[in-house]
Amino acid sequence: MQSIIYRHSSSLTHSDVFCSVETATPIPGPNDLLVSVQAVSVNPVDTKIRSGDVIVPDAVTALGWDAAGIIKAVGDNVTLFKPGDHVFYAGSFMRQGANSELHLVDERLVGPKPKSLSFAQAAALPLTALTAWELLFDRFGIVSGEKTNKETLLIVGGAGGVGSMLIQIARNLTNMTVIATASRAESYEWCLRLGAHHVINHSQPLAKEVAALNIGPITHIAALTHTNRHFSALAEVIAPQGKIAIIDDHEFLDAVPLKAKSVSLHWEMVFTRPLYQTEDMIAHHQILTEIAVLVDAGVLHSTLTKELHPFDVQNLKLAHALVEQGNMLGKVVISRTQPQ
């Protein structure tokens, strides 16, 4: 089978940053699905692993942790799926990524693909939907479907992949007032279309932008990008006993300013469950199954904004370049089939 491998600790200026090679067809383990990959989305984690900023095992030679495809074979202990099923998933960066014709993934990390979406539209969802869901319901402890809560959620970086899903999930499954940040006209309109009640400009002083809304205390903050740049403002606007969740990477983060307000700080890393093989690893299957139901019901929508075809070295390099620019709306996906 064909796989696209990457050069470790490389930039996009390297001529051999990606290379298409012939590799052996993988054999499913007891809990594995062998998936014929139809589409893969590129995320910041792909670019960080490629550049060496995030370390993975040396045996991982292919990137790609946001995929949709068709099951070709299953392991002996698999009970959730069968060959022929259409699925979507993020998987685990401790194993090979999905930039291959065929890919192995633990069934506990996989959901049934939304029937109403193409493979490309579905591949745009798993990693960001899982991150947003875990941040809101696991880290913050908000109850899904509970419409009596009156909290306010500030999402820093609302137009990115995770922000785009978090706006939708918070607006449709909770009673929270959703405030997103954006800095361009197109990202401002994007956040409003996704359901944000308010959009403020994170290129301006955030405390003043929040105060101008005159909507009361900010009880929850999802800091999705450039957290160090905004942290003093976040500490200022967060309500006493509020909660802040962070997903971006830091060499150092000074949380001392949160002490006086008894603010709790939460980290969300979508690969924690597969990385540590936690007892509740099947939560990824359960969350993605619920996401699929909500998508097919028209409650949630794919955030695919750029689809590339075919799945080759040139388009993979282009997708990485688009993500590294840091100003994409939604998600970029590379598809093995011609876009409709």
UniProtKB/TrEMBL annotation:
Keyword set includes Glycosyltransferase: no
Keywords: Metal-binding, NADP, Oxidoreductase, Zinc
SMART domains the record matches: PKS_ER
CDD domains: AL_MDR
Every Enoyl reductase (ER) domain range: 7-334
InterPro entries hit by this protein: ADH-like_N (IPR013154), ADH_Zn_typ-1 (IPR014182), ER (IPR020843), GroES-like_sf (IPR011032), NAD(P)-bd_dom_sf (IPR036291), Zinc-ADH_QOR/CCCR (IPR051603)
GO molecular function annotation: oxidoreductase activity; zinc ion binding
Keyword NADP annotated: yes
Similarity comment: family membership: Belongs to the zinc-containing alcohol dehydrogenase family. Quinone oxidoreductase subfamily.
Entry-linked PANTHER family: QUINONE OXIDOREDUCTASE
Name the UniProt record assigns to this protein: Zinc-type alcohol dehydrogenase-like protein
Organism expressing this protein natively: Xenorhabdus poinarii G6
